[in-house]
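Section 3.1: Structural characterization of target chains.
Under the original work plan, the team committed to producing a structural model for every single-chain target entering the pipeline before any wet-lab resources were allocated. The record below documents one such target. The sequence was received from the expression subgroup and is listed exactly as submitted; it comprises 501 residues.
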Amino acid sequence: MMTTRIANTPLLSLALDRSTMVPLQMQIYDQIRDAILSGRLAPGTGLPATRTLATELGLSRNTILGAFDRLLAEGYVEGKPGSGTHVSNILPDDLLSTRGRTASQSRSSAPAGKTSQLSKMLTKGHYRRRHSAAGARAFRPGLPDLDNFPFQLWGRINARFWQHPPRLLLHSGDLGGYLPLRQSIAAYLGAVRGLRCSADQIMITSGAQQALDLIARAIIDPGDDVWVENPGYAGMRATLIAAGATIRHVPVDQNGISVNAGRKLAPDAVLAAVTPSHQFPLGVTMSLARRLELLDWADDANAWILEDDYDSEFRYGGKPLSALQGLDDAGRVIYVGTFSKVLFPSLRLGYVVVPEKLLAPFMDLRASIDDHPALALQPVLHQFFEDGHFASHIRKQRKLYAQRQDQLIQALDKSAQGLFSATSHDAGMHLVAKIDPDCTLSDQDISRRASDIGLSVPALSTYFAGDFKGRRIKQGLILGYAGLTEKEINKEVKRLVEAIV
C-alpha cells in the first residue's frame, strides 16, 4: 500500500494498493470521487495536472488520463485533463443528496453489521478461494506443459472447420454436446480407461467443475450426508457444500478412502466423492479390494459414487489403470473427466459419464441451466481425436512428465537436503515432498515464504479438514512439475530453498 500526498493539493491524498486485483486507474477514480462526495474536495478546487500526478505516483500518464476522463464524463470534474481540471461547481442532482456523507455511507443503506442479499454459505466462508502467488507458474499443481502443445496444428484444424461450418451447428446444439466428440470420447474411454459407456451417456461440460456442480445439483438435497476424501480437493468440497451437503470427511490410507471409516461416520450417505486412480493430493491409487468394497457399500446404501479421474492419462509405470466405473455392474458410478490438464487450462472442456438410469433427469437439469455447452471448440477437439493427434500428444507428454518428475527429485536431493525431499511416483503431475523432521518451519510457513517470491507451493496440511483434536496434521508440500522445463525446475528449487533458509 502506497500513500502519496499530491503537491499543491493539500486535500488530495491517494493510497494505491498494487497488490490488489483492482486496477490502479479504478483506485484513482474511486478515491477522487469519494473525496468529492464527502466534501473534502470542495466545488471549484483544482486538481493537479495529469503529468504531475503521474510523476508523483510513479504511473503512466495514460492511467491518470483514464481516471480523469471518467470523472469528467460523469460530471464530477470540469475542464480538460492536461489544461486544468477542477471539481464541478454544480454536481449532478443525484449526488447533491449524498454530500457530507462518507463514500461507504453513500453506497449502502444497510444497517451496520448486516450484509444484504448474501447467502449464509457465502458469508460463513464456505466458498473461500485458495490463494496462491498471482500468476505463479512454478510448482503450481495441475498446470500442464504448454510449450510442446501443437498450437499451429490446432489452429489449422480450427480454421478448416469454421471456414464452412454446418449451418445447423450455428443455430443450436445438443444438450449433451457435439455428438461426434462424444463418440470419440466414448471410444477413447473404453479403449484406454476401461469404461463401459456409450456416447449417449456422455455430457460435455465447461470443465470438470461444472460437471461436479451438475452432479451435486442432481443428487443432493440439503442436509444429505456425503463422503469426501480427507485430505482432498477443496473445489469438490465447496461444490458439494453449495448443494447443501453435510460433508463427512473420510480418511485416506495407502489403499484409498477408508470405506470402514465412512460406514461409521455416515452409513447412509447419498454420495461418495473420490479420486481413485491418483488420489488428490496424496497420490495413492485405490486398491482393487478397496474399489470393490466401495462399490458394495454404494449398492447396499443405494448411494452414488462420483469418480473424478482428473489426471489419469499420465501414468509412467505401464498402461493406465482401469477406471472404477469399469468395475461397476450396478450403475452407481458417475465419472468425471477433463481436458484442461491434458491439453491446456483455458480450453475449459470436460465431461461427465452419466449412468443410464440418470440420463433423463440429468438432461432435464442441464436444460434448466443452459441449453447446450459452448460449441466453438468441440468440433476442433473431435478432429484432434480422429486424426490421432490426441493420442500422440498424450504419449509425448507422458514421457516428458516422467523426465521432469525425475529432475525434480534430483533437484531436491541436491539443493534441499535437511529441509524436504520426495520420492518417485508412477503417476500424476505433482509430488508430495516430505518435510525433514529437523526443519523448524511448518508446511504453511514454507508455503507463505514461497508465495512471497512468486512460487505456488500449496501446503499439504491445508487440504485436511475436520476436528483433529490436537493431533498433528500431516505436513508436506505439493510440488507440480509438469509445467516446468528441467532447467526451470533446478532454478526454482534453488529459489525455494533460498527463501526458507
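Residues 377 and 447 are 36 Å apart (CA to CA).
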